[in-house]
Amino acid sequence: MNQTVQIQPGFYQKIQRRCTECDGEGEFISNRCRKCNGKKIVVLKELVRVRIEPGMKSNKRLVFSGKGNHVNRTVEAGDLIIELELKEHSTFIRKDMDLIIKMEITLAESLCGFKRIIQTLDQRKLLISNPPGTVIGNEAYRSVANEGMPMRGSDGRVKGQLIIIFIVTFPQNEYTGENLKVIGDILPPRPDYGYCDDGQVLKSELYDPKSSSRRRRQQASQGETVECASQ
Fold it and tell me: Does the reported pTM lie above 0.70?
């Protein structure tokens, strides 16, 4: 819509504005529909079914064409895009097609064998065993074939591995006396690295990385405070 505006006496300016009646479409509807108010677009709610296939990964996008917003009748409706976000599991960690689980075992189980049950994501129970005499070290890895995540499109026939990371927990109390002698007799002999009579004897202490780092930050902040006070 063109409009002529007088700027000052003898000077006029022609301005082009969007028509408020037809909204710039060049068509005016006098008898307007109550539902769309003449816009020829009605806002409706539609139920869209989303199928999550087994094996889909995080950040996967599902596109539904024409299910998005419809600005006006001259422009086609947009798309509805759903982006998947993998929720963390309390037991398993996903890495591509593999599933990783951390299993704590005692020192006795590490040396003498054990039997454990792992409940899978589809509620099955897997028996994980280690025979006596086969020692499992701390942070040792074992894998179970075809018990990981399914490959997409394989209908569940092709799966990754279930990877088990064993965490060996050691006894907290100190052994003394007869029990210590029995353990020493059972285990392999300790290597002799030699001993120097004039060497310095030091006592080691338990080290906690978290508390040590916190203590360093406190000492650093106290040092800055003292330095600022002395200036």
Answer: no
